[in-house]
Input
Amino acid sequence: MKVATAQEMREIDRLAMAEYHYPGLLLMEQAALAVFRAMLDRFPSGRVGILCGKGNNAGDGWALARLLTLAGTVVSVFSPSAAVNLPPDAETNRQIARALGIKEQPWSALLADPTGLSSCGVLVDALLGTGFKGEVRGELAAVIKLLNGAAQPVVAVDLPSGVEADTGQVKGPAVRATLTVTFGLPKVGLLVYPGREYAGTVLVDPIGLPPPLLAGMTGDFYTLGHHELEPLIPRRQPEAHKGTQGHLLVVGGASGMTGAPTLAALAGLRSGAGLVTIGVRAGLTLPEKPLEVMVKTWAEIRWEDYDAIVVGPGLSIKPDGGELLEMILGLEQIPRVLDADALNLLAQMPGWWEKVKGPVVLTPHPGEMARLSCLTTTEVQARRLALVGDKAAEWGVTLVLKGAATLVGTDTEPIYINQTGNPALATAGTGDVLAGMVGGFLAQGVLPPAAAVIGVNLHGQAGDLAAAEIGAAGVLAGDLLPRIPQVINGGLANDHR
Output
């Protein structure tokens, strides 16, 4: 599914009106109906308070007020003032609502006497639309703070007010919604943090927009639901054997860090690879080595024997690892995943991307990305969306920027925004599992961008299963391993958001 920027949605609306002859009032009506249906499904009957602003979002709010009133709900509408000038379609809906006897109260009265909200069972945020950028100030900021202080559930129309549609940034007061009903396509700011946290549950309603507009327009971002992910996952044929499922090599391990390559190796097997070998320094033993995994020293490795390579888990940044990594960068016929200490070694290798031959996937967390990009971690987190695309193109790699709402970027395709996973994954070793999963899919012949997207999504799903069964605190990286085949085989078949 495409994920839209504000400009992309404006263009879709424009084309709907210009080429498909949709009047603006119809689009506003469909938006109001989407919120109306969602509220009927999720909240008990009772008085509803709708807070309207000065733009077309206010028109959605006024149309919703009419629909609710005609359905027998008592509605209170709060607006900047009775004299505010609304856009034409929004003003039309306002006048219809007024003619039906729906009362309009100014924000100033609400701020003077907040009890106007306390009698409502549900509150609706129709204050700001997708065009908002910057920081909310003045009277509107006070209204948002009042709304956030209420005990009732809050439904946001298209986007929580105060959240930037294109970045998810929150630079001042912003509505913390229980439910966000967004129109046409999901917005970028609803899927990345901090906007994702403010949005609550996100419901995407196409509001009757022409399907060719929603499906046909190219965009810079996308995400996957389960129904879109399932066809991408490699499936075993009846005649499959271990030799047809790919051989993954995991290069890593140092004294005191032998668990990391072991986790990656097992994740590769759990993801469907037929064979997995761990390549280690001479003299290093793996006390955790599972029976299903083979081990060779670096000197014994015949690189052409492998269908994919994961480099870095537990590798350390010793000089011999750097020398090996530089050689591995030139193995252009074999797809490689660079993780953990391989990334730290890259950061010490000026112009490393000029040495890369063939397909490479990088899986940095924000700290590793900061070292690779010569930025601070804070700068990385503030620029995640732009950075992942820019650096993937500059370095010529598939780039997985881990974290809440992990991003996958390439030099040719839209940026993927992941929606699976939870804070239970914030524990040592889960990154090694992810690297092994991506490597396992590469070994089965999946192309690097798809392998990264599949791996990230299923890794998050495995974390979701683990958290549901164990709890958010106390999940171990090893707890993900038995859940990988569960999610591959449909154990978590719900569509995310």
